[in-house]
Design a protein that fits this description.
Strand order of the largest sheet: 6-5-7-8
Number of strands: 12
Largest sheet: 4 strands, antiparallel
């Protein structure tokens, strides 16, 4: 059953992404040869008007073949494409929308699922403002001089600063702290006070802690009208966590937290054990993850295609095909290397566990 849930998860996320490209391409009149889920040999296919819809043997990945793309034109050399219906015939802004449509569909899927989960709960817990409700006794915070009622205006650690609006934003910012000193700008009795605290490792909590407690969450009732707002709010919070994770990876931190297909399979097994809501939340989270990952400016990803398209439009000429092929090849090598690393990482976690 876990295998089926895992394949269903991949199917939904990938088909939604590729459907975004397909719908946008058809909206602007681009000729589409094929819409396929999976890779490898074709198991099932059906042609509707000009587009062939296919199911392939390996249920990982998927694609839309469009006229004007090298891969598509090479795969369908005998198809006569009407004048003006190739991707390359379209204005730059239309091509960019087509390239980003898959990402937008991933974001839409995430938003809808989160909104429906929140609606089914009937309530949403909003994080309190960034202030200290209580200082834990004998904690690093008490030793550093924190007081109940302090309002947190700014946090600085290792050269990075943020001005948290909510206590949750504070937690996200400090999530990867491994004992580095943190400087807080606190408002106390209408005056600004600077306090520096060094988080300490706690066996009880299984991580580094400071010892400040937030005010209670503000629980609001949710209906069909406002669930979309809170769904977007939750989506924004998850996106912040992902951006922070990407930032850490680019600086070489927490590489062991990267996961690939093996890790996703394990996460699927765990989420299913908690019920439907947990499973749907995982789909939403991974859909957002796929969308954000595809925005990275790598030529083999949607974000990279947008960058190259804009570059060609600004320069007024096409990129040299040999240079483009070399860049694409280098990115594929990088991506394959990353996939091997995360797979080894995932397997190592399972073996150690």
């Amino acid at each position: 059953m876990t295998i089926l849930y895992f394949l269903l998860l991949l199917t939904v996320i990938i088909c939604i992404h590729e459907a975004g490209h397909l719908l946008a391409a058809k909206l602007f009149g681009v000729y589409c040869y094929e819409y396929s889920f999976g890779m490898g040999p074709v198991l099932l296919k059906k042609k509707t008007k000009e587009t062939q819809y296919s199911l392939r043997a390996i249920p990982v990945g998927g694609f839309v073949s469009m006229a004007g793309e090298p891969d598509g034109d090479e795969a369908y050399p005998d198809v006569v494409v009407p004048e003006g219906r190739r991707l390359t015939d379209k204005p730059t802004w239309q091509r960019i929308i087509i390239m980003l449509a898959g990402v937008m569909m991933n974001f839409l899927l995430c938003w809808v699922i989160l909104s429906m989960i929140i609606l089914s709960n009937g309530a949403f817990a909003e994080s309190s403002k960034a202030m200290v409700e209580h200082v834990v006794e004998n904690s690093p915070a008490e030793k550093a001089g924190f007081k109940d009622g302090d309002i947190i205006r700014e946090i600085t650690v290792d050269g990075r600063s943020t001005k948290p609006q909510t206590f949750q934003e504070l937690q996200i910012f400090l999530a990867d702290n491994q004992g580095e000193p943190v400087t807080f700008a606190l408002e106390r009795n209408q005056e600004l006070v600077s306090v520096t605290v060094t988080p300490e490792y706690s066996k009880e909590f299984g991580g580094y802690w400071i010892g400040i407690q937030a005010p209670d969450y503000n629980v609001v009732k949710v209906n069909f009208l406002n669930c979309w707002y809170y769904g977007a709010k939750e989506m924004g919070l998850i996106a912040k966590l992902m951006f922070d994770a990407i930032r850490q990876l680019l600086t070489g931190k927490n590489l062991n937290q990267l996961s690939g297909p093996v890790g996703i399979y394990s996460a699927t097994e765990e989420s299913v054990s908690y019920g439907l809501t947990s499973y749907l939340f995982l789909i939403a989270e991974l859909s957002l993850n796929v969308g954000l990952f595809n925005l990275l400016p790598l030529p083999i990803l949607d974000g990279g295609q947008v960058v190259m398209t804009l570059g060609e439009a600004i320069a007024g000429k096409k990129l040299n095909p040999k240079v483009k092929l070399a860049i694409m090849g280098a990115c594929w090598i990088l991506l394959i290397g990353l996939m091997l690393f995360v797979t080894w990482n995932d397997i190592s976690k399972i073996v150690i566990h």
